[in-house]
Amino acid sequence: MHIHILGICGTFMGGIAALAKALGHKVTGSDAHVYPPMSDQLAALGVEVYQGYDAEQLNPRPDLVIIGNALSRGNPAVEAVLNQRIPYRSGAQWLHDELLQDKWVLAVAGTHGKTTTASMLAWILAHAGYQPGFLVGGVLANFGCSAALGNSDFFVIEADEYDTAFFDKRSKFVHYQPSTLIVNNLEFDHADIFADLAAIQTQFHHLVRIVPGYGQIIYPEGEVAIAEVLARGCWSERRTMGPNGDWALQLEQADASQFVVTHGQQSARVAWDLVGAHNAANAVMAMAAAYHVGVSLEHAAEALAAFKNTKRRLELLGTPAGVAVYDDFAHHPTAIATTLAGLRAKVGSQRIFAVLEPRSNTMKRGVHADQLSAALAQADHCLMLQPEGLQWQVADYLPNAQVAHSVDALLEALLAQVTDGDNVLIMSNGGFDGLHQKLLARLQEKTA
Question: Residue ranges of the Mur ligase central domain (predicted)?
Fold first, then answer.
């Protein structure tokens, strides 16, 4: 079968492409913006990718078109699919129909930490010999890809609450039918499709309703928004993480590079390469989910000792001219704050330059603008892009930040200040117009 994917370079759709290719289908696709790491994965798979959405890419006619949730009516390719009556489905529906119906699905949901936690869980299961399939919104460093079919009944998936497609406005995760469900946290996000937190909680309620009675829901104690969801109805086992929960965490190092996990009379010590209390909390959730399907604490701790974090999650890109350049996907105030806290614990008193692109729809609307100052408090200096079309003025909310109206201007402002021993944390959920590589190249020139 020839499957053509519209919006193929998104992390979810790129994973769909990898799975469809592994199933033996011919896969092509298109996107408006093509950038790593997904573009690299698609190229390695031999998937032909078209730039843009002209109708000609549907000639010859594919057997099925999978349409990403970023596309809507008026898009030339979408209109051609409808006018030519080409069969189409959403990525989430295709995944359910083709792969998940007969699997034990372990889903990781929540506002923050989904990618990292799902990556940890997939690696723990693989290390224990479970040979799981997985689809995660990032390239898993331990596997070198974002998705794989696996060779067992277990499938790990990052369960996103964003809507499914222009023709299916339910959250993607209601298609996954998990037997093990992690809910890391729950905050307001995606202001372009949700009116308020209550609207998001309704979608999570729908997700909880489809977890079977033998299934298990794992979540942190004390999270009011999650407790409110579960109060609307829960028919599955519950396991909590926290000081008084079923799973407890005790940090042995301030940077969370070593910690102890306790469950009942059992405990295990984890020593690993990651830092940040948020990552340690994610690890406990992953260990609890793996335990639900039979993996011991000891085996999980061994796996985490060899875990390498997903790309674009506090990823060290290089240290040219003695400047450590990190890339992170953070784009919500909570994620920004926890990422900075983790880096601060790692580098101590060294200077941190936080560089932020307000790219998500929620950020563009200024929904969280008044929270950014507190979120960036751990940084010594903040540089922020004021892109065209941003619906608020950065200077009004971050008076101490350096504001640039172009990536090139941002780059020059950064280069004028950083020196040996500094740390640059670049945060964006997009490509940031190649700022990462531009900075690395310019710093490298200083050492030539």
Answer: 108-290
